[in-house]
Amino acid sequence: MEFMEKFLLRFDDFKKQKTLEIKDEIFDIGSEIEVLKQSELRVSFKAVRYGEIISITGVVFGTETFECARCLKIFKKEVKIGFECSFAQEDGVFDLGDEIKQTVMLDLPMQPLCFEECRGLCHICGCNKNDKNCNCQEKLNIEFIAEKWSKIKKINSK
Ligand SMILES: [Zn+2]
Ligand SMILES: [Zn+2]
Fold first, then answer.
1. What is the pTM of this model?
2. What CA–CA distance (Å, rounded) separates 104 from 80?
3. 148: CA distance to ligand 2 center in Å?
4. In angstroms, what is the span from residue 85 Cα to ligand 1's centroid?
5. pLDDT tens digits for 96-109?
6. For 117-131, how does the pLDDT look when each residue is reduced to its tens digit (9 = 90+)?
């Protein structure tokens, strides 16, 4: 059986048995979404047939691995994302794997941060400002002021 086959649901399979419950199944999303290559996700779901509709509720959970948008550090984040969907008899087969992928993608942060107040990298010396105070910006400001003063002095001495 193909790995992702477990997430391909066939309406016909619910003819004998009305409920399907899957717990803590490994969900391989790695190669699909670049930022989630190192992530470890699992899925639990329950699919129940109500007449001609199969209704699915589930949760995808585990750790996602990101690169901080400010300091470029690799960090892990625990996630737990609920989802709900359904399909009808006329659909025949339903790719729940695709549904889960979209759920995960919609939940991805636009700007992943290793922590909310991450100070990022110094754009002058490149050091990580969470670990070190480099004062590059202050030095730059002092130079800027000094330069301004020297210009003012030049104007005044003319
Ligand atoms: Zn950071
Ligand atoms: Zn610096």
1. 0.77
2. 10
3. 22
4. 35
5. 999 999 999 999 99
6. 999 999 999 999 999
